[in-house]
Design goal:
Blueprint (H helix, E strand, L loop, with lengths): L8 E4 L2 E4 L2 E4 L12 E5 L8 E6 L4 E7 L2 E6 L4 E6 L4 E5 L4 E5 L6 E6 L8 E2 L2 H9 L1
Antiparallel strand pairs: 1-9, 2-3, 4-11, 5-10, 5-12, 6-9, 6-11, 7-8, 7-10
The structure holds thymidine-5'-diphosphate.
């Protein structure tokens, strides 16, 4: 699979703002997939490490609803590290990208919008298998 870490993009979530606060809206124009699943990470210990896998077909959009965390991305050739810390800026992760998420701030919440339901068969959980997948 040819996707690269440069295909991973920070997208701004349109936000309605007034003196009462901010309201961010993810509609279909905002992300390039239909949402089939929503899940979130919370109560994450600061020394915890999540991810450590890639997906064959899944698109995901990560939004740091609260606090901050780092997303380390690999495509088998290049790497990128992105800090997410603004609730109106999400990260679009395309299929075929290895990701590791770490350095969660206290009380941080990571919302994930996904293009499909949970399917363990869509995961690549061993880095060696990921490298093979990227070569084919
Ligand atoms: P995993 O995707 O590996 O979590 P992370 O990438 O955040 O480290 O999933 C952790 C566990 O939760 C694993 O046993 C699968 C299960 N799980 C579900 O049952 N449904 C889901 O939608 C997700 C994302 C995970």
């Amino acid at each position: 699979m040819k996707t690269s870490v440069n295909d991973v993009k920070i997208l701004e979530v349109p936000t309605v703002s007034d003196t009462r606060g901010k309201l961010a809206v993810v509609e279909k124009e905002c992300i390039p997939f239909a949402i089939k699943r929503v899940y979130y990470l919370y109560d994450v210990p600061s020394d915890s490490y999540r991810g450590g896998h890639a997906h064959k077909n899944l698109y995901q959009f990560l939004i740091p609803l609260s606090g901050s965390f780092e997303v380390h991305l690999k495509d088998g050739v290049n790497e990128r590290k992105i800090t997410l810390n603004k609730p109106n800026k999400g990260l679009l992760i395309v299929p075929g990208i290895w990701r590791e998420i770490a350095n969660f701030s206290s009380g941080s919440v990571c919302l994930v919008l996904a293009s499909n339901v949970y399917e363990e068969e869509d995961y690549i959980r061993k880095y060696k298998d990921f490298e093979l997948f990227k070569r084919t």
